[in-house]
Design brief:
The complex is a heterodimer of chains A (about 240) and B (about 500).
Chain A (H helix, E strand, L loop, with lengths): L1 E10 L2 E11 L3 E5 L6 H8 L7 E6 L2 E2 L4 H7 E4 L11 H9 L6 H14 L15 H13 L5 E5 L7 H16 L3 E5 L3 H4 L5 E6 L2 E7 H7 L3 H8 L5 H4 L2
Helix pairs in contact in A: 3-5
Chain B lengths: L2 H20 L5 H28 L4 H32 L2 H6 L4 H10 L5 H14 L1 H4 L2 H29 L4 H23 L1 E4 L2 E4 L14 H12 L5 H24 L27 H6 L1 H24 L4 H15 L1 H5 L7 H6 L2 H31 L5 H25 L7 H24 L3 H41 L2
Antiparallel strand pairs in B: 1-2
Helix pairs in contact in B: 1-5, 2-3, 2-8, 2-17, 3-17, 9-11, 9-14, 9-17, 11-13, 13-14, 14-17, 17-18, 18-19, 18-20, 19-20
The chains are: A alpha/beta (about 240), B mainly alpha (about 500).
Chain lengths: ~240, ~500
């Protein structure tokens, strides 16, 4: 169980996250909100890339900031941008990252091959990252988040930059993680795509939690996730602005 | 070093090997840049201290100690840090590194191990060691030769750098940053270069790196001021004219490119240098000051404008056989103008905590700006002092007042540098001020003692230093610092979008 307790984070005068309280219990949680709402900041805090100004995050009862090294063993993070090393090949990237987790050698090789095949990157495995396409970089970044089979997945815009095949693979991967009972936190603006994956939905606006519901309740109350979202966020839809 | 760091280092070796293979001489000049600047600074500082030291032998030992500390700092520690700053950005992805289950200390060790991967590091280390320890070895000629080699390497690195920038690799952000720094530094680098061409029997003699640490630690001050004396005596020198024309031309070309490159459209993948009509040169005059600070395009136009003026005026003065002090003052004045913006961006981050939240590259940049500012002071104000000393224009009051300004600025920079490395707390700026005073005022105490004959004058100077420093320092934090803070906020905000 992951508990966000009164998390606040400011950048200058801008409060990116404002007293955020959230409990995530082995579910697939979708974090939604307009641009600048504080979603990515919240994910960066959970990933310990940022320290909150106040508040704490508890995992199984203890603060994740006490031993960040240990915490990072439990999480798989897909950052908003791929964040890769320039002059290292796809295969070398995976090999480098997987070696940080205590996985037996045979298992390691099997996993690397399996993921490369799954995302159709086998023939590009010896390609340097600086010549990879955006889509390939995204796929590699996804593999790096999943390769060590983490208990918690933190995924910032996982579908952006993927081709249709990639989207399907990503969706399948998320459903598989859900079946395994992993905790998944996703931010996305493509609501249709994530609707069938999520267990619960949290809406953030202006750094504050606006609403938190399980997906069944959401869909029983509104006809779609999109409708639910726009009901919660106080902005006009694009179609309503231009007549 | 644990296995995981070893693994990272292995991969970085691979990565770096590939990078070097692709960009043959990459990194080479990055080592030499900081080195070259600091070598010049060391020379000036050492000379200053020795000139002062010669006047009163009581302080001789103290000066030697201070000299050694400065040498160690400027020859070894600062260049290494500066180099790492620009160097590691190419080969590391900080966020990816942070995502790996590594302890903070392990990450730190790894980042600094990178430095040792570059073969050129070892070359500089060896050269440095030889230059550092000639006292017992008594190999003056060899050291002279090494100094000359080092000087030539620096010059070659400038050439490589300019070629890289102008011909093929301008799109590299790293270079863009260094490029703008170099432009800012060029005026005073050239001023200093002038010092180091000594005219002996109408022949130019290069004495730039003639920094000989003999047993008695005496440096021939005539080497240092040779040019000024020659110029003051009105000796016509072809070498000097050539140097002036050459430096002027380089300045014009480089700043014109900077001016042109600016006009590239943002968002383009390939940055094509398009030379712009000179009519746009004065566009900066139409913008208001606040707007200028946030518009680098106009800033560079401004820079170009100032540089052109600087070159024309200095050359005109030279032709008029004006005394060198005028030339130096004009150069210094324009250097101040050119560096107006770096001055504004001296670290004024009021919260240390906020500083540490900035991306590493930005932190490095801020630190670099402070160091640049220090260099700027050394190269602009110090020459005036030296000139005054040599031209026998100086009076005690004048020297004290000039030194007062220098020390205040030094104090301010030191305070800033220290404040960003202090742990977060309410009184962090005051603590920084105290530490800065210990570091800066300590050596200055000895320095001023030599110039101020009476204890009262000396005390008054010191009190003034402290007060003015506090005023400048706090102003710097509150007002000038706003610029950086706003920039920092913007970057962080954009990063989190």
């Amino acid at each position: 169980m992951l508990e966000l307790l009164n998390i606040s984070k400011s950048f200058g005068r801008k409060k990116a996250v404002n007293s955020l309280n959230l409990t995530i219990n082995d579910t697939c949680l979708g974090l939604f909100g307009p641009n600048g709402a504080g979603k990515s900041t919240a994910l960066r805090i959970i990933s310990t890339l940022l320290r909150p100004d106040s508040g704490d995050i508890l995992y199984k009862g203890s603060s994740i900031f006490k031993d960040t090294k240990e915490w990072k063993k439990h999480i798989g993070v897909l950052p908003e941008y791929p964040e890769l090393f320039e002059n290292i090949t796809i295969y070398e990237h995976i090999d480098l990252v997987i070696n940080f987790y205590n996985i037996p050698k045979i298992e390691k090789n099997r996993k690397i091959d399996e993921y490369l095949e799954y995302f159709q990157l086998e023939e590009f495995k010896n390609t340097l990252c600086n010549v990879c396409s955006q889509g390939m970089k995204k796929k590699l970044s996804i593999i790096l988040a999943f390769i060590h089979d983490p208990e918690i997945l933190i995924l910032d815009e996982p579908f952006i930059g993927l081709d249709l095949n990639g989207i399907r693979s990503m969706k399948e991967l998320l459903l598989r993680s859900r079946r395994k009972g992993k905790t998944v936190i996703i931010t996305s603006h493509i609501l249709d795509l994530v609707e069938k994956i999520l267990d619960s939905v949290a809406v953030i606006d202006d750094g504050k939690l606006v609403d938190l519901k399980d997906i069944d309740t959401v869909l029983s109350q509104c006809e779609s996730l999109e409708k639910y979202y726009f009901d919660r966020i106080n902005i006009p839809q694009a179609g309503m602005m231009i007549e | 070093m644990n296995n995981k760091i070893g693994l990272l280092v292995e991969y970085q070796k691979i990565s770096f090997g590939r990078y070097l293979k692709k960009n043959k001489l990459a990194g080479f000049e990055r080592y030499l840049f900081p080195w070259s600047f600091f070598v010049i600074i060391v020379r000036i500082i050492v000379n200053t201290l020795f000139i002062a030291g010669k006047r009163e032998t009581t302080y001789f030992f103290a000066f030697n100690t201070v000299n050694f500390a400065y040498l160690l700092l400027f020859w070894t520690i600062l260049p290494v840090f500066l180099t790492i700053g620009s160097f590691r950005e190419i080969h590391l992805n900080k966020i990816r590194l942070q995502l790996l289950p590594l302890k903070k200390m392990d990450r730190f060790i790894f980042e600094y191990i990178l430095l040792f991967l570059h073969p050129f590091f070892y070359l500089l280390l060896v050269v440095n060691l030889i230059i550092f320890f000639p006292i017992s070895m008594n190999i003056k000629a060899f050291v002279d030769f090494l100094n000359l080699v080092l000087f030539l390497l620096v010059m070659i690195s400038y050439a490589i750098f300019l070629l890289n920038v102008l011909v093929k690799r301008y799109h590299d952000t790293q270079y863009r940053n260094i490029f703008s720094d170099i432009i800012k530094l060029l005026p005073f680098v050239l001023v200093v270069l002038n010092y180091h061409f000594r005219i002996v029997d109408n022949r130019p003699v290069l004495v730039l790196f003639n920094l000989n640490f003999n047993i008695d630690w005496v440096i021939d001050s005539d080497c240092f001021f040779g040019t000024i004396n020659s110029m003051a005596a009105g000796i016509p020198s072809i070498a000097h004219s050539l140097l002036l024309i050459m430096s002027g031309s380089i300045l014009l070309i480089v700043s014109y490119y900077a001016y042109s490159i600016n006009e590239r459209r943002p968002g383009r993948k390939k940055n094509v240098i398009r030379l712009q009509p000179l009519s746009k040169l004065f566009s900066f005059l139409k913008e208001d000051q606040l707007y200028l600070e946030y518009k680098i395009i106009n800033y560079r136009n401004y820079l170009f404008f100032v540089t052109v003026l600087s070159v024309i005026v200095s050359f005109f003065l030279y032709l008029q056989k004006a005394v060198p002090i005028v030339y130096i003052m004009v150069c210094s004045f324009f250097t101040i103008l050119v560096n107006k913006y770096p001055f504004n961006s001296i670290t004024g981050i009021s919260s240390v905590k906020r500083y540490f939240l900035l991306p590493l590259s930005y932190r490095t940049m801020i630190l670099k700006k402070n160091i640049l500012f220090l260099i700027w002071i050394t190269f602009t104000i110090m020459p005036i002092i030296f000139s005054c000393l040599l031209q026998k224009y100086y009076t005690e009051t004048f020297i004290i007042s000039i030194n007062l300004i220098v020390s205040c600025l030094l104090f301010c920079v030191a305070g800033n540098i220290i404040s960003i490395y202090l742990p977060s707390g309410k009184n962090e700026n005051n603590v920084a001020l105290i530490i800065a005073s210990i570091i800066v005022v300590g050596p200055l105490l000895m320095y001023y003692k030599l110039f101020a004959e009476s204890f009262i004058a000396y005390s008054v100077v010191m009190i003034c230093i402290v007060f003015i420093s506090i005023i400048i320092y706090s102003k710097n934090l509150r007002d000038i610092g706003l610029y950086i803070e706003k920039e920092a906020e913007r970057i962080l905000y954009e990063q989190n979008q």
